Amino acid sequence: MITALAFAFCVLANAGMPAERVFWSTPTVPGKVTTSGSEIHFAGDIDAVIATTIVDLIRRDKYDTLKLESDGGDVLAARSIGVALFDHQMTVVVTGPCRSSCARYIFTAAKQKRIEPDAFVMFSEHQSYHDYVQSLVQLSEKQKTNGDSALSREERQALYAGRRWVGAEEDYFTKIGVDMRITRLGYVPGRSVSYWLLTGNRMAEFGVSNVSLPGNYASQDYCDKMKISGILRFDAQCF
């Protein structure tokens, strides 16, 4: 936990970086956006430029569907796409992998959702993020028990920045009507990263509804086949 705190303090306090960037890496696969009829097509990593392009297209009210495959990308950029999808009641069709921010913010926000054969939506959570959140809980309890003066300047900065991050997450999932516990369901202590796929029924338990998918999607047979085919990573879990 000390390591997690030190990491958060270094990034948030010393570098002055907002909490949204703590556990994010720079996208490496350039994104590409095209249109066809009433569809927006997107493939690649999500960044601010890609988000601006997609959101601008959605706001024209000429398109009703976003077809995509993405390994994820910038948190704020993905959220902005999710908000636009939700506000305009768009359909999302997943044509390949939809990982990380793609799953967390974009897939969950669509009015209608479709996962095509040999495509998948994979949620993930980094252990560093899990530890970071736990460190914020500890700091909050320390503040509640002993008062604000019990926290060092660095601790206060980390706590307040973290609360902004957590608040933004809670506001987002409240807006789209999804239980944000879906984003940490697969966390397994002792692993650096946990990845998971959910059946349609499991997604519905968290408020992710109106999902069309292959009949055996996220079953053990489905995931085993996808892993053997090299489409899905071998350490992914299926619920």
Report on this model:
The chain starts with a helix and ends with a strand. The protein has 239 residues and is of the alpha/beta class. It has a domain at 32-126 and 177-238: 2-enoyl-CoA Hydratase, Chain A, domain 1 (Alpha-Beta Complex), CATH 3.90.226. The chain has helices at residues 2-14, 48-59, 75-87, 101-106, 127-146, 153-176, 200-205, 220-228; strands spanning 32-36, 39-43, 65-70, 91-99, 112-115, 120-126, 193-197, 211-212, 236-238. It contains 8 helices and 9 strands.
Task: Write the SSE topology.
Layout: H1 2-14, E1 32-36, E2 39-43, H2 48-59, E3 65-70, H3 75-87, E4 91-99, H4 101-106, E5 112-115, E6 120-126, H5 127-146, H6 153-176, E7 193-197, H7 200-205, E8 211-212, H8 220-228, E9 236-238
Parallel strand pairs: 2-3, 3-4, 4-5, 4-6, 5-8, 7-9
Antiparallel strand pairs: 1-2, 6-7
Outline of this structure?
The protein is an alpha/beta fold and 239 residues long. The chain has eight helices and nine strands. Strands 1, 2, 3, 4, 5, 6, 7, 8 and 9 form a nine-stranded mixed sheet that branches.
